[in-house]
Amino acid sequence: MSDTIFGKIASGEISADVVYEDEDLVAFRDISPQAPTHILVIPRKPIPTLNDASPEDAELLGRLLLAAAKVAQQAGIAEGGYRTVINCNAGAGQTVFHLHLHVLGGRPLQWPPG
Ligand code: DGP
Fold it and tell me: Is the pTM of this model over 0.85?
């Protein structure tokens, strides 16, 4: 699958607090939450960064966003508001090179993020 920690979570080799999964996606709680609700949604496919996504990934990326909305709803933060973030490469703070979407909520979120 992939040799990143998220690839190992996707394959079940490493455990995580999984809140949603299907054939192509897994969502689990961030180990270092930056908000009361902080969930990561990943494709099982090991795409390192958003820069590496290709047109053939378009449907997968759309489903990643829809899964984010679903887990936000399940977590009870959809109405109050939440933020989705994809950090791309080190300059944006990406530390795990397996594409992932952060879903953050449960507290007021400042904009711009800084
Ligand atoms: P980023 O900085 O965008 O690459 O975000 C990586 C996030 O992944 C960071 O918020 C911490 C989280 N994380 C790192 N290792 C693990 C892990 O082993 N399990 C879980 N659940 N989250 C992890």
Answer: yes
